[in-house]
Amino acid sequence: MANRARTAKHIAFITLAVTIAVMVAATIVEKFHGSEYALDNIYHSTAFFTLWGIVAISGLCYIFSVKMQRSPFTLMLHLSLVLILAGAMITHLFGVNGVLHLREGDVETSLPFSISLNKLEIQYYPDSKAPMGYSSDVTIDGRRQTISMNNIAKIKGYRLYQADYDEDLKGSVLAVSRDPWGIAVTYTAYLLLLISMIGFFFQKESNFKAVASRVGARVPVIILIICLAGVLVMMRKFIFTGGSQLMPVLRTPLLQVHVISIVLGYFIFFSLLAIGIAGLIVSRERSEKLRDLSTILLYPAVFLLTFGIFLGAVWANISWGNYWAWDPKETWALITLLIYSVPLHQKPLGFLRKPKAFHLYCILAFLSVLVTYFGVNMILGGMHSYA
What we know:
With 387 residues, the protein is an alpha+beta fold. Among the domains are: 97-178, Tick-borne Encephalitis virus Glycoprotein, domain 1, CATH 2.60.98; 206-387, no CATH class. 63% of the residues lie in helices and 14% in strands. It has twelve helices and eight strands. The chain has helices spanning 2-33, 35-43, 46-65, 72-94, 180-200, 207-215, 218-234, 236-240, 253-281, 284-320, 328-341, 355-380, and strands at residues 96-103, 107-108, 115-124, 131-140, 143-148, 153-155, 158-165, 171-178. The strands form two sheets. A four-stranded antiparallel β-sheet has the order 1-8-7-6, with no helix packed on it. A four-stranded antiparallel β-sheet has the order 2-3-4-5, with no helix packed on it. Strand 6 (153-155) and strand 7 (158-165) form a beta hairpin. Helix 1 runs antiparallel to helix 2, helix 9 packs antiparallel against helix 10 (284-320) and helix 10 runs parallel beside helix 12 (355-380). The longest helix has 37 residues, at 284-320.
């Protein structure tokens, strides 16, 4: 049993490292060859799917071989991540996606319902001709309704999203998707993930509880409050003005919580960088105490980043009909999440129990935050490069 667990552990973490490396390479390939090339040859390739499958299967073999059932929320967390991958696979294999081009007065009957465009409406920024939002007044099976980027239409298992419009303002482009099973599995996985992350802090047996008993609560809570204050100060204009100059699809609490959660996670990762630098130059005893402090902070940081990423996926699916586009910012946020998830596994990865090794890892891991937050904007580009 021990040999089986060891083998599964090695396969899981080695394959995960390879998967991270592939995603890093994919963002560089996309920079020089374009998004379609990266999607066709990397992200949607059989080899990439196989890597994720090996990570999931070997991870499941490991968690059951070490009897993780004793920590139910930790088990649920890992199972929810596997279920997310399963939902993504179901969507990829069985989901239907397409584009519907409507011109005013024409009736489209290629779907299991009829649809016609009555009028396209454009909203402009104040004192500008730049479009802030657009919507389509349509009739579906005799029923009139409006479709916009934050107001989709649902009929007979299909979802219709506002995607684009014709330059003469007489035509509209709608994205069409049908994915009942993929959405059901994915949303169930997201709910289980949220429950498991909350419940994790209350379960009896966990590394977090053991380390927290040594560290206490005062210092970690103070650091978390400082990080939260920093995030609120940095984002005060966006949060408290309501983003009045944003297009309608961006004026949603989902976006605000999504951004706050991720940025707060990044702030905490920065505190781990500072603690890590100190941990390399102090005595071994103090370095161990700083490692415990970083471990306590690492859990909420990773959970906040996880929550922010998947909340963003829900918002994207609601607004555009697509959870994940493998945009460089999305991809590097996922890379950062995976990199910082590794030191949470100090028990199976014995080298991370050594204080100096742990601190060095946290220092090097912050490079992924820098690439995610700055490198994508300045070098890699993509639809999130403004954020």
